[in-house]
Structures are given as structure tokens and as C-alpha cells.
Design brief:
The complex is a heterodimer. Chain A is mainly β. Helices cover about 0% and strands about 55% of the residues of chain A. In chain A, the strands form two sheets. In chain A, strands 2, 4, 5, 9, 10 and 11 form a six-stranded mixed beta sheet that branches. In chain A, strands 1-3-8-7-6 form a five-stranded antiparallel beta sheet, with no helix packed on it. Chain A is globular, with a radius of gyration of 14 Å. The relative contact order of chain A is 0.33. The chains are: A mainly beta, B mainly beta. At the A-B interface, strand 4, strand 5, strand 9 and strand 10 of A face strand 5 and strand 10 of B.
Amino acid sequence: EDQVTQSPEALRLQEGESSSLNCSYTVSGLRGLFWYRQDPGKGPEFLFTLYSAGEEKEKERLKATLTKKESFLHITAPKPEDSATYLCAVQAGGSGGGADGLTFGKGTHLIIQP
Amino acid sequence: DAGVIQSPRHEVTEMGQEVTLRCKPISGHDYLFWYRQTMMRGLELLIYFNNNVPIDDSGMPEDRFSAKMPNASFSTLKIQPSEPRDSAVYFCASSWKGGVYEQYFGPGTRLTVT
């Protein structure tokens, strides 16, 4: 069964204080790893897709990286508007989440204090 | 584009009643997904469709749940009879293709069963 574990569950940072969120995964044949941002009362918003180990993608203050067992979401000099829950999800070729459905972690709740 | 549209945004019903949730995917998207989000279990895939045909319904919790997609622009998720443990936020998502293409989520329907 495909599994995704995110840590920490919650993280409180000061504005400008850089940090990283972790996503560990176990899947049968990774096809893609996704990062989403979710604001309270809203649906998840797509951020990145990573396909293979060693790949990196950046968007503003966010950078996502991928290894064979985990992914990191690095947040550089965050601002209060970066406060949200960050979700990691995997898409596998096995039967865990369906060939096309996503298996999600429970997310990291990030708070950036001014 | 208006994005994925879901209705109603909030639903409060009594145990035993029938509940119907509605979704309009992004125009041109071939895949439609239904997810459920709870604090305890996070986001879970319930069922998904490709070209209006159900592909994988292994995530549907029990026979009380059913989903249909009569055409490319409309899908329903029905719960009959509803139970308090069905209380959750239900998300619809759509994507252009299957495989490693990002899924775009709607705003969700918050269901409360008393």
C-alpha cells in the first residue's frame, strides 16, 4: 500500500526564517510527486510536480527537491502570506491510490509570524 | 476559466437523509476525481472517472456512496442514507490527462450530518 508521511505536522517560523518541510513516501513505482498548498476553507492549490530523483523546481520563495525516498519543500525568507497547509501527494503505477488517483500525506501546517 | 465548481458549499443534514454533491470540472479536462478530507484521515481518493466512465471506485467507503458522471461537464456524489461519520469536506478535482498531470481542485463541499 502506498504511504506518504509528512513532517513536522506543524511549524511556526518568524518572517524571514528559512526552513524545510519533509515528505517521505513508499510507493510501488513512483510516477510523480506533487506539492499542493491549502488555505483554510479552500481546495488544494497545485504548486509543483517532480518526476525523478535529483529533480528540483522553484517558485518564488519555494523550492521542491526529490530523492528516491523523500521530498523536501524549502522555504526561503518566508512571509506571512506563505502561511498555509502544505500537502505532499504521490501518484503511483500500483493499486494503492489507483493508477491515476493521488495518495496524500496529512500535511504540514505552516505559520509565519510577522 | 472559472475552475472546478462545486455545489453546495455547505450542507447540513440529519442522519438517514439523502445527500447529493455536485461538481462541474474544468472544460476540456478528461479526468474527474472525488476526494474526502477529514482531520483524522486527511485527503482520500474516493473514485475517479475518465471520459465519463468510472475507472477506480475502490476508495468508496461502502454501498451508501455512489457517483455518476452523465456527461463531460457534470458529476454527482450521492450518499444514501447519510450517517454522522460521513461528515467531512468533499472535494472534486479534474485534470487534462491521466498519469502525472496536475489535478485542479474545487473549493469543496463541507458536509455535516447530525
